[in-house]
Amino acid sequence: MEKRLITLCKRRTGLVATAGVLGGVLAVTALGGTSNAAPSDDDAGNRPKPQAQAQEAAPAPEASDARMEITPGPGSHNIGTNGPVGVTVRNGKLTKVTMTAVATGAEIPGTLSADGTSWKANGRLERATKYQIAAEAEDAEGRSATANATITTVSPANDFIGHLSPEDGSTVGVGMPVTVSFDKAIGDKAAVQSEIQVSSSSGQQVVGHWFNDHRLDFRPESYWKPGSTVTVTLTRNGIRKTVTFKIGRSQISTVDTKTKQMTVVRDGKTIKTIPVSSGSPEHPTYNGQMVISEKFRQVHMNGASVGLTEKDGKPSYDIKAVPHAMRLTDSGTFIHGNYWGNSVFGKVNTSHGCVGLKDVRGGGDGRQPAAWFFDNSMTGDVVIVKNSEDKTTLAPGNGLSDWNMPWSEWVAGSPTT
Asked: How confident is the model at residue 319 (pLDDT cuts 50, 70, 90)?
């Protein structure tokens, strides 16, 4: 069961970009989803400001003195298969550390030191694999703390440098764009893009768009055709790498914040209508087309991570196990289970930006609406929010929100068209 601390974010969508100059080769590691913040097109170089995610404030415990560090740091790419990967803690002791492969859920064994202040992963890691590390610790007063990181190991095709999603052989929803992220800034975008070809068995025209110097996405004018196969071919200095993935059934879920209902449409037919609670008037949910990029059985949401604290410095809320959480934007919007607001669904919007569905603590009841939606959704599925009081524009580069950009503007962002 996955569990990680979520950095909750407000409405700014400009995301940090890494400076640098592209080396002589293009490399791609095939990945699924986008767990770390991707660069945005409209405010590059700035982190998004926090958007709180809790639907209603849970009782806030005392802040822990324990301070953890995960090596390598969150979002690290091209990690060697021999590591080192580890966790250390100051002013406390580690109580639990798990490291799992995102695609398979396989857990990586590790060793905890005798004094409880460090943990180290054992053995070799797999190449071109995305891992999640979740650590928990307690200070001398028994107050808990958590730390999380997502890292990716080096690609077996060392003649390519970069990161590609979705992963080779995966099946995704109709809204999943092809995303190529570069660790170093790309100067000659036309030259690099000319070496990346994306096609669909549906015959749809596919065009690339640069959000900034570090991110290149590909998509057709409208959602991918269900059942089609997308092929990505990358060529550099005579070396070719091919990645293919399949488009599954079409599932488009529309959240109407006025009626407080979500309508789930699969292959053109409504299969479920679910009462929801979205952002309050003070913290409205984004309007627009969003795409599920990650799924977590449980996540830890803490107000202090976004500066939401009480006068005494305690976090405004600290919910350790928010069930059935699915990421919609890099700036922190999720659609998730809510077990603490039993009377709000379909009646009142109470959250700080997320969309909440009725659930139970621990998420163990498969009959609950949140469990049903989680089990019947895949990465790449589309979630549309309408009638929100939010007046800002959801940036297409905030998560996988590419579909909010008009086609003419999308094509204009491609130097090869």
From this structure: confident
